[in-house]
């Protein structure tokens, strides 16, 4: 708690998920230990990355792997690897891709923004984005006819950010790309399952070390050795500005190890307890429906889905989310998962809480719901104004 008062910051409660904007995740104690022990020492980075390759291979079932700055960096460098191979001349030429295959096919419904647009992570390498299909519908034949002799890679995104229906499933996506000799890169930044996409035949699979794994901020690249090597060698080119230090590499190794030994059942039971507490505490509140909701991409976790009927609750889902994140003095901000709030619901994610915070979350929710009941007028602002309000709140940063 000490750094909060030292820097004059306020603590926040994160029931949104593993968000970069909130400090990613609670770094696991074995990771903190591993990082603290390497920080004062020198180490040959090629050797440390060799150990990371072995740790990633064990955890993911891949031929090899390496650690980079972030999953976003891994997308850029993975794409670069497919264009340059291990040719140092080509690596230094990027992002000028003249004379190279440079088209990346990706489903339109996968063109997400995870804090920055994914298509920009592709274009950063000098590649060109070629969308496949419509936003909510794509077919294998469309992928097949989009692949040409200029195609360097096919990128597949697994995320709650993507459209969750009507698109090409990963098995068919890999089959169509491989039938045309095109490598497949899977962005699985926030997925629990470390082996599934390698087992399905993906050439590179990318994870964030700082999300559910509880590592330091870093990206994990797993895959075929030749491609992993070509991605690693980008550190002598465009990857230089995306480099990871010894602490990030050691952190990722430790995170993968602790993840494999973590008591996942106990974590699930603890989260279940939080969900039960919240559902019981919210039951009978006017205009509120609280239920558990399974993770959309199949991660083994449930969240609380809070549906809000604004007439009876006398507050909209987005105004409630904003009230929770901008509390009166003396209360902690509670940041909920509200990317779908215009549909009159938001989620409360139980995975990133310190013991006891589950009660604060419930108290704050009940306090805001009661305030709304007592207010002379319902608090239902037009949703379309919310974005402008948020942007204007940041315009004068750092003031
Ligand atoms: C978080 C995320 C990223 C970016 O990961 P970083 O490691 O934070 O750069 C990329 N893709 C998806 C699907 C994500 O959820």
3D architecture notes:
The chain has 399 residues and is an alpha/beta fold. It folds into two domains: 2-19 and 263-395, Aspartate Aminotransferase, domain 1 (Alpha-Beta Complex), CATH 3.90.1150; 29-259, 3-Layer(aba) Sandwich (Aspartate Aminotransferase, domain 2). Helix content is 41%, strand content 15%. The protein is built from 16 helices and twelve strands. The protein has helices spanning 2-7, 29-38, 45-60, 71-84, 88-93, 118-123, 140-146, 170-179, 196-199, 225-232, 246-261, 264-282, 310-313, 317-325, 357-374, 386-394; strands at 13-15, 64-68, 103-107, 128-132, 151-157, 184-187, 204-208, 219-223, 288-294, 302-308, 334-336, 345-348. Helix 8 (170-179) links the parallel strand 5 and strand 6. Helix 4 (71-84) packs across helix 10 (225-232), helix 7 (140-146) packs parallel to helix 8 and helix 12 (264-282) runs parallel beside helix 15 (357-374). The protein is globular. The relative contact order is 0.14. The mean pLDDT is 97. It binds pyridoxal-5'-phosphate (PLP). Pyridoxal-5'-phosphate is lined by residues 20, 70-72, 114, 157, 159, 161, 187, 189-190, 208, 219. Its cofactor is pyridoxal 5'-phosphate. InterPro entries: PyrdxlP-dep_Trfase (IPR015424), PyrdxlP-dep_Trfase_major (IPR015421), SelA-like (IPR018319). The modification N6-(pyridoxal phosphate)lysine is found at residue 211. One of its GO terms (molecular function) is L-seryl-tRNA(Sec) selenium transferase activity. Keywords: Pyridoxal phosphate.
């Amino acid at each position: 708690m000490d750094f909060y008062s030292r820097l004059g910051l306020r603590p926040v409660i994160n029931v949104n998920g593993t968000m970069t904007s909130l400090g990613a995740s609670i770094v696991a104690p074995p990771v903190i230990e591993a990082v603290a022990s390497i920080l004062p020492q020198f180490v040959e980075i090629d050797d440390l990355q060799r150990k990371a390759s072995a740790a990633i291979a064990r955890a993911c079932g891949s031929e090899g792997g390496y650690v980079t700055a972030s999953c976003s960096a891994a997308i850029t460098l993975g794409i670069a690897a497919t264009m340059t191979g291990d040719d140092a001349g080509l690596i230094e030429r990027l992002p000028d891709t003249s004379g190279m295959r440079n088209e990346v096919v990706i489903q339109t419904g996968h063109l997400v923004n995870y804090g920055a647009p994914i298509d920009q992570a592709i274009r950063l390498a000098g590649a060109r984005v070629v969308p496949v299909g419509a936003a909510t519908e794509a077919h294998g034949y469309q992928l097949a006819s989009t692949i040409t002799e200029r195609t360097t890679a096919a990128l597949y995104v697994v995320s709650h950010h993507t459209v969750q229906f009507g698109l090409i499933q990963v098995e068919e996506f890999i089959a169509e790309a491989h039938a045309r000799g095109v490598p497949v890169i899977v962005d699985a930044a926030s997925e629990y399952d470390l082996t599934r996409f390698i087992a399905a035949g993906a050439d590179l699979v990318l994870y964030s070390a700082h999300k559910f794994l509880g590592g330091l901020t870093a990206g994990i690249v797993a895959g075929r050795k030749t491609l992993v090597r070509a991605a690693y060698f980008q550190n002598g080119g465009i990857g230089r500005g995306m480099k990871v230090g010894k602490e990030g590499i050691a952190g990722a190794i430790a995170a993968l190890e602790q993840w494999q030994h973590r008591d996942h059942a106990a974590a699930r039971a603890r989260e279940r307890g939080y969900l039960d507490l919240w559902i019981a505490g919210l039951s009978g509140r006017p205009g509120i429906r609280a239920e558990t909701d399974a993770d959309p991409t199949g991660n083994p976790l449930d969240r609380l889905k809070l549906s809000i009927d604004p007439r009876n609750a006398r507050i909209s889902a987005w105004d409630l989310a904003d009230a929770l994140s901008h509390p009166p003095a003396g209360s902690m901000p509670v940041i909920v998962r509200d990317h779908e709030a215009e549909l009159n619901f938001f989620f409360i994610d139980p995975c990133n809480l310190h013991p006891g915070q589950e009660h604060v979350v419930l108290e704050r929710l009940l306090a805001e719901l009661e305030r709304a009941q007592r207010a002379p007028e319902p608090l239902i602002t037009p949703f379309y104004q919310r974005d402008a309000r948020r942007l204007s709140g940041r315009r004068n940063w750092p003031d």
